[in-house]
Amino acid sequence: MIGIDVGGANLKVVDGRDVHIHYCPLWRESNLAEVLAEYQGEDAAVVMSGELADGFFNKTEGIRFIVDAVRKTFPNAFFYGTDGKFHNNACSELAAANWLASVDYLREKYPDGMMLDIGSTTADIVPFAKFSDLLGMTDTIRLQRGYLVYTGMLRTPVATLANSAVIKNTVTPFSTEYFACSGDVHYVLGNITEDEYTAATPDGKEVSREACLRRLARIVCADLEEVGEDGATAVAQAFWDAQRKLVCSVVQKVAEEAAPGNILVGGIGSKTFAPLVGGTDLTAAVGIPADALPAFAVKEIANR
């Protein structure tokens, strides 16, 4: 049995040997079926969130595309839905159910727990205690409830959360162009490694400290030589201050309402955010592959 999580940007596969993360964007012609063909001969349990990618007319089209692509390699695959059940065919319940699979798995061992799963694009912040209340929740409802915060460690445009930084003792407003992303920020600040920067860069160029600093400098319409490393790093720090404050404040609000016994932190940001929210890094403490939690979770649910 393998677990598959089909996101809009990344495909994550967990098998008995390892975690495999493939950059596989669905908003342009996708090679999803070809990538999955590498794993022939296994049974598959699947979750998804990639149906929202804007290459599809609507979620229904996205769900059908993903199910059809998976079925080319795994004709008997089954898909976990927001109703907490597995399905054999494309249906509306399959949309954005990956977070629920994570909760469904974790709640068995941590019934009074709460999850912060912060990945490349989003942060899922969900208490476990009233699992039945979570069934049927769409991402829109989760945004309204504070259970979904649309910011992540790699793909968030810098100007969406911060609007200025102090550079050479002057408050300098940000441009709102997509010049740099959270991946550039976290790489420069040491929160992620080069191997963890799995998303495409805004300019399509390499992942290196200098390349990230150059992208960050463009946020204030400058070359790196104009503002220097200190100026570009100030841009990164302004974004990180805003992102940290946003995520931690929502975690605190949800925790105050749910009074969880503990906070379990997954995603590529687990090691960064676990100490900030007083939580447990699932990879370090429990051995769960935090950077592919839904794929791991759906496999475990299917096995049980």
TrEMBL record:
For this protein, the record's InterPro entries field holds: Hydantoinase_A, MfnF
Taking the record's annotation, the residue ranges forming a coiled coil are none
Q: Which part of the chain is the Hydantoinase A/oxoprolinase domain? A: 45-257
**Record-level Gene Ontology MF annotations:** hydrolase activity
Name by which UniProt lists this protein:
Hydantoinase A/oxoprolinase domain-containing protein
